[in-house]
């Protein structure tokens, strides 16, 4: 019930004007649930300068699935627009943004692009973009490139001549690096050089320039399609031959939870899953994928969801929510754009 409600919510797009009355009611119900249980249930913190997790408080985690295409992030982007608008109303501040309420953001593929855009540090230490801006960025890519990124197939070649593998994301993110995020950000890819998953992490970037990457390159790495792209750390010491995050970790929720529980420096009070509040947003089922590819991608994502739910045990109904949608809803949403 909660997942289908969230799907209809997301299908409402930026301002919820689209959809019938039933979808509108479901939209209201699901976001009321998220506001009450997941964001304000631990005590509201007014919007303002970026906050650190309260001592002894629960850590709020946002996890966003994603594929290689811009269109794979539209449902999540629309859901986040609605959530941020609800939070602004509840906080009584038009300046409230998602980083004011979430302590960690993890994203894969297009979800990684959303995480980078939403949690990048802008002027005066506030978020660079609102959720509406991030969704608009994805929509522009869909309308111009049929769901992909500009020159995605040639990003490994043409991109290097025009400013690096992340040139498609350069206008939005400039020279910002992982260290320039308001909260810990986690974005996966698969490194062909080591034949292993690689997790871009602000915590690692803070420890060594060899693990600090420009956000535009992080986005290019996690969204890489069939052809690998090469990204280089800020100091030039680390090179990653990346293919997309979906190939490594389409659903990054478990990685985000593990990161928090093992990151005593930033989250000293998080000793067990009961100390976390986790919201995980899926991309929706992709009806246009081949059957084998669809089963593989959705199967891995669902297995992560099941494992996380089991880890939470009795607290999974209060500390963990997964929002996923059916292929029919996904298709209906994409047709609107």
TrEMBL record:
Annotated PNPLA domain residues: 62-257
Written domain comment of the UniProt record: The nitrogen atoms of the two glycine residues in the GGXR motif define the oxyanion hole, and stabilize the oxyanion that forms during the nucleophilic attack by the catalytic serine during substrate cleavage.
Any one of the GO BP annotations: lipid catabolic process
Role played: Possesses non-specific lipolytic acyl hydrolase (LAH) activity. Hydrolyzes phospholipids as well as galactolipids. May play a role in disease resistance.
Classification via Pfam families: Patatin (PF01734)
Matches recorded under PANTHER family: PATATIN-LIKE PROTEIN 3, PATATIN-LIKE PROTEIN 6
Protein name, per record: Patatin
EC number(s) recorded for this UniProt protein: 3.1.1.-
GO molecular function, a single term: hydrolase activity
Species this chain originates from: Panicum virgatum
PROSITE patterns noted in UniProt: PNPLA (PS51635)
Keyword Lipid metabolism: yes
Enzyme class per UniProt: hydrolase
Keywords from the named record: Hydrolase, Lipid degradation, Lipid metabolism, Plant defense
Family (UniProt): Belongs to the patatin family.
